[in-house]
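Hi team,

Filling in the usual template for the complex we talked about on Friday. All components are listed, including any nucleic acid strands or ligand strings, so the model treats them as one assembly.

SUBMITTER: L.P.
PURPOSE: interface mapping
COMPONENTS: two
RESIDUES: 833
SEQUENCES:
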Amino acid sequence: MRIRAIYPIARADFLERVRRYSFLVTLLFAVYLGYAAATGKIALRLGNYRGVYTSAWIGANMAMVASCFITLVGFYVVKNAIDRDRVTRVGEILAATPLTRPVYLLGKWLSNSTVLGVQVAVLGLASIVMQFVVAEDPHIDLWALLAPFLLLALPAVMVTGAIALLFEALPILRGGIGNVLWVFAWAFGIALAPLTDHAWLDFTGLFATMVSITRAASAAIPDYNGEFALQTDFTRPAVVATRLRWPGIQWGLPQVLLRLEWVGVALAFVLLVAPFFDRFDPARSRGRPRVRRRSRRESPETATTFASPTSASVQPSRSYAPARLSPLGGARSWGLYRMFAAELRLALKGYRWWWYALVGGLLVAQCAAPLEISRGPLLTAAWIWPILLWSAMGAREARHGTGQLIFSAPRVLLRQLPAGWFVGVLIAVATGGGVAVRLLLARNFAGLLGWCAGALFIPTLALALGVWTASSRPFEGLYTGLWYTGPLNRIPGFDFTGAASGQGTIKYACLYLLLTLVLLASAFLGRRRQLLHA
Amino acid sequence: MELIIEGVSKLYRGMVWGLRRFSLPLGPGVLGLLGPNGAGKSTLMRILATVTRPTEGRALWNGTDVVKSPDILRFTLGYLPQDFGVYPNLTAMEFLEYLAAVKGVEAAAARKRIVELLELVNLTDAARRPLGGYSGGMRQRVGVAQALLNDPQLLIVDEPTAGLDPEERVRFRNLLSELSGERIVILSTHIVSDVEAVATSIALIDHGELVVHSAPESLLQSVSGRVWEVVVPSLELSALRQRYQVSSTAHRSDGVHARVVADHAPVSDARPLEPSLEDAYLSALGAHRGQAAPSGGPA
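RESULT (copied from the run log):
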C-alpha cells in the first residue's frame, strides 16, 4: 500500500475545494455560528441558567456548536469527495494507477476532516474573540478554551468525514436517500449516549460536557432542576449563575481515550468501506438505470452495428446514404402545457409502481382517517415521500450536464422554469391532496390556507435552492431538517403544513406564502443569471 | 441569411482573454473553424450559441444583435456543444421529445422528425433503451440528432465527430454537406480532414484572434509549391524538425519520408508535393506565431 499517496490525494482534494466559491459560503456559515454562539442565540443552557463565561464555558459552548451543527451541515459540504472525481472523470485516471482503495479513501477522509476542521478552527478563533468581548472573566486559560475543540469537536467532524465517504461509496446511500437519512442518523447519534448513559457512544462530546457541567451546576445552583441543552433561543436570555464557574472537563487518560476512540471509529469506517467502493468502475455501479432484459445481453455497440454480414464491396455503405429530413415549416408550439407535460414525464421517469402505490395509499388514508391524523402524521409522511423528486428541480440541468442544450433554446425562462415549478406544485397537490379536500369539506379555510402555503413553499424552496446551488443536496438537507423540526416535531412556525400552528395558522401561512414569493423571484433571477452569464 | 460577428471579445476571470476583437461575416455554407487547443474556438461557439455573453462586441443574426436578443437566434439554432450530458433514465426517443418541447417544436411534427433523426444517426434500434446505458459514440449521435430537431438555420457543432467510429464520422460529414445548402453551419474541430471534406470556408483561430478566413482553395494556394517530401535517415529527423516545419512523417525501408513546408526545397533531391489543408493550417499558424518555417537552403 502506497501510504505516501495519502497526503497528495488529501492536498489536491483540499485545494480543489477551498478554491471553490462554495467553500467561502461554508466558512461564512461557520462565522455565523460563531456569531450566534457569541451573542447567546445558540448556547448551552441549564434551564433558565447558564454558567459564568469562563474560558472553559466559552470553549465548551463553541465546541458544542461546532460539534453539533458542523457535523449536521458539514456532512453535506463534504459528501462529494468521490463524486467530484467521478464527475470530473479524474477518477478514471486514478483507477488506472496502482492506487489502492484504502489509500484513496484515507486521502479523501483526511481532506474531508481538514475542510471541516477549518470550520472548527474558525469557531476556535471566535471563542477567543468572544472571551475578550464578553469579558465576564478576564482570565484566559488557553487549554480550557481550546481543548474542547481539539478533543470534542475534531473527532466528531472526523467521524462525519468518514461517514460522508461511507455514504458516497455505497450506491444506495450515494444519492438523495443518503442525504435524507443523514438527518435521522445524526439525530440518533446525538441522542444515543444520553439515552443509553454510555459515554463511549458519545460521538459529539455533548454527553461528556453535559455530565461535567450538570455535576458542577448541582453543586453551585440551589434550585437547579437538572436540565441541560444546547439551545437556540432568540427571545429568552439566560440568567447567569454567578457561583457556577465551571472549570471544564478534567482531561485524564480515560477521557482522552474516549475521544480518541472516535478517531479510531472514523478510521475503521474508512477502511471498512474500502471493499464497497467501486473504484470508478461503471460496471460495478448500481446507479445505472435498468436495461430491459433483451438489451442487457447486447453490448451498447453491438446493439447498433449493422447486423448484415454483407461486405462494403457488395453493398454500398450506409455512410453514403443521403440524409432525408422532412422540413418542419412553421410547426411550432409554445404553449406551456406541452412543456409542462415534458417536465412532468422527466420528473417522474424512473419511479417504480411501489412508489406510486405508496402515494395512493397515503391519499386514501388522508381521506379516510380523522382530520387531525390526516393533517398531522399522514400529511407529514406524504410530503417527505417525494423529496427526491423535488430536490432535482432547478439542479437537474447542472447535475446531468444538459444546461447548454436547454439554455440555448428560446423562452427557457418563461416556459421551462415555470413548467418545472408547476410540476413540483402538482406533486405536492397530488401527494397531499386528500388533506386539502378534507379541510375544504370541513370548511376549515385557515387550515386550507396553511396547506396551500405548504404546497407552494416546498417546490419553490426546492427550485430556488436547485437553481442557485446547482445541486440537490442543499434542499435535501435543509428540507429534511425543516420537516423534522416542523411537521414531525410539531413546532409552530417551522411547521410549513400549518397543522401545528394553532391560532397562528393564518399568520404563519402568510409568512410562508411571502417566503414562497421571495424564493420564486430568486429562482427566476438565478435562472436568468445562468442564461446570461453561463 | 447572414451572421456577422463584430469585434467580439471574451475576458475570463484572471484577465485571460478567450477571444479578442474577433470579426467574421458568414453566409450559407459550412465554416470550418480550426485552431489549436485553447485557441478560443469553443468560446466563440458558445457565444454564437447564446450560451455565453461576450465581454464586448456583437453578433448580428440577419441584422439583430443576438447578444441583446438571444431568443431571435434561439428559434432557429441547432447547437451541439463539445461537452454535454443526457438524462440517463430517459430513452433516446424520450430525451429528444423532451428537447423538442423545450425548443417549441409542435408535437406531431416532432415525433416524425425524431423518427427520421434516429434513423439518420443510426440509433433506431437503440431508441427505446435508457441513455444511461449508451456508449460515448452513441450519446454523441443523440447530440447530433438533438441539434437538428428544430430544422435549424444556424447549426453550430463543436467537435461533433469526437467519439464517432470512422463510418459514423463519414456519415456525419455527408450530413453536414447536405444540410449546408440553405443554412449556415459552423463546424469546430481538431480533425483537419473533417474540415477538408465539408468546409466551404475556413477560419483559423489562435490565442483568441482570427488568423485567416478564406476558402479552402485560397488556403491551399498559399502553400502551393512549398510542400516537399524529404527522405532522411531516422537519426537526422530531429535536426530536420528543428530547421523546417514538418507536417508528417512515415518510416520506410529507405528512411523517414518527411513532409516539409518550406519556401525552397530543403534538400536537392526533395520532391514537390500537392499541398494538403493540414500543410496550409500549420504554415498559417506558424506564420502567425512568427515561427514560420525558415526558407534556408539545402540541409
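MY TAKE: Residues 286-316 of chain A have pLDDT under 50 and may be disordered. Chain A touches chain B through 54 residues (CB under 8 Å).

Thanks, L.
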